[in-house]
Input
Amino acid sequence: MTEKLLVVICRLASTSRQISVFPIQIILILAVHLARENTRREEKFPMPSSPLVDLTQFDFSKTLFDLNDIRRVNPQRHEMEQLTAIVHVDESNHTIVGYKTIGDKEFWSAGHMPGFPLMPGVVQCECAAQLGGFYARKYDLIGGDYLGFGGMNGVRFRKPVFPNSRLDLVAQVARVRARKLAQFQFQGFVDGQMMFEGEMLGVTVNRDQV
Output
């Protein structure tokens, strides 16, 4: 609304023969208000971040760790196994790249949504969490019996994810505290396009807490 009003007033100022002196203050006030509106809009819906890595450099047909390797580290099984393979690990900057193969018979496909299956955002985040969790446990960054969700920040879902696709995943460790907390940045892509991104906290969970 502010932007349209500003355009109308500027046109009026430039074409009116009856107004000899146009109050430039009004234009300046509206311009400042428009700039503030745009800033608030960008804060609420920020543009996608730059990719953490260039995925085109990896051959996804050559796995570094397959599903059996993942099972030796991650405890999830059956319908909650949401990581298919890992293709790259860089311990120097704590980055890991993997993927989830999304079939047409996923546990959520019949009910979310009937006749038009969409991968739930929470499952997308679980995929990224299992990738980050694998790195934290495999490379001994964190203790405890399990790694659980401690929280998420700045999560944005850019585009829908459908069955019969490969969800490429990237996670990068931002910080580790006292071997009890690990903070990750994560991103997900399909065919090179960013589907979702965010930041998550992984915290230790021990059996004796029950």
